[in-house]
Design a protein that fits this description.
140 residues; alpha+beta; Jelly Rolls; three-stranded antiparallel β-sheet; 3 helices; 8 strands; elongated
């Protein structure tokens, strides 16, 4: 079964920034020439995440950040922050909970997403970063 891999970079600006990458992933699937299969969208980094969710401002700018703050507070006590670590222990915990990849089917040369579903990259670190996103396709 054929595979394809494409990588692209994203410059993030701030903690809790949400970036809709659905169009980029869709272009990669279409350009691959594969019609049916599975796509894995992976972000390399331990303070970043990828999720399939609705790309709605209230959700991305308020609901998810508020939930993450309850789950892993910015000012919480993290062993990672002690002894020379930087102050981003909460970022690592948040990334672990959300996950660094999403797997989704594609058909007819496009991702098979729900009506409101998008692929969103979340910057969770306390500083801007250059993120590498890998899209790995397996199909025919």
């Amino acid at each position: 079964m054929p595979t394809r891999r494409e990588t692209f970079s994203i410059e993030t600006k701030e903690e809790l920034q949400a970036i809709d990458i659905t169009d980029r992933v869709t272009r990669i699937v279409r350009a691959s020439g594969l019609k049916e299969g599975i796509a894995v969208v992976f972000v390399a980094g331990s303070t970043c995440a990828v999720a399939a969710t609705e790309s709605e401002p209230g959700l991305l700018e308020s609901d998810i950040p508020v939930a993450l703050e309850r789950l892993a507070p910015h000012d919480g006590r993290y062993a990672h922050n002690v002894g020379g670590g930087d102050a981003n222990g909460h970022s690592h915990v948040r990334s672990t909970v959300l996950g660094s990849s999403v797997t989704l089917p594609f058909g007819e040369g496009k991702p098979l997403l729900g009506a409101w579903q998008h692929i969103v990259l979340f910057e969770l670190d306390i500083r801007s970063r250059k993120r590498e996103v890998v899209v790995q396709l397996v199909g025919e």
